Amino acid sequence: MLHRIVLALTLLAATCASAHEPSRAVLSLSVMESELSGRLDLSLRDLEEAVGLDADGNAAITWGELEAREPAIVAYASPRLHVSSAASRCRLTIAPNGIDTHGGATFAVLALSGTCESPPEHLRIDYSLLFDLDPAHRAIVTIEDAGNVSTAVISDAERTYTAALESAAAWASLRRFVVEGVWHIWQGYDHLAFVVLLVLPILLGRGTRPSTTNAGAAAGEILRVVTAFTVAHSLTLALAAAGWVPIPTRAVELVIAASVLLAAVANVAPRVARLGPKLAFAFGLVHGFGFAGALGELTAGRAALLPTLAGFNLGVELGQLAVVAAAFPLLLALRRSSVMRRAVTVAISVACAALAFVWLVERAAA
Amino acid sequence: MSSTICSSGQTAGRSWGRRVGAALLCLAATAWTAAAPVTPTDPQQVLERLPLREGPAWTAIRDLQARLAAEPDDARTAAALAREYLTLVRQTGEPRLLAYAHRALGRWNSEPEPPESIALQRALLAQSEHHFAEARDELTRLVAREPGETEAWLALAAIDTVQGRYADASSSCMRLVLAADPAVTAGCIAATKALTREAPAAYALLTSNVERARASASSVSSWLATLAAETAASLGRDDEARAHFETALAASEPTPDLYLLTAYADFLLHQARFGEVIALLGGAPPADTVLLRLALAERRAGRDATEHVATLRYRLELALDGRDVAHAREAAFLALYLLDEPERALPLALANWDVQREAIDARLVVDAAAAARVPAAAAPVTDWLEQLRTDQPDLARRRSCCTASF
Question: Which of B2, B24, B130, B262 to probe the A interface (max A CBs under 10 A)?
Answer without folding.
Answer: B2
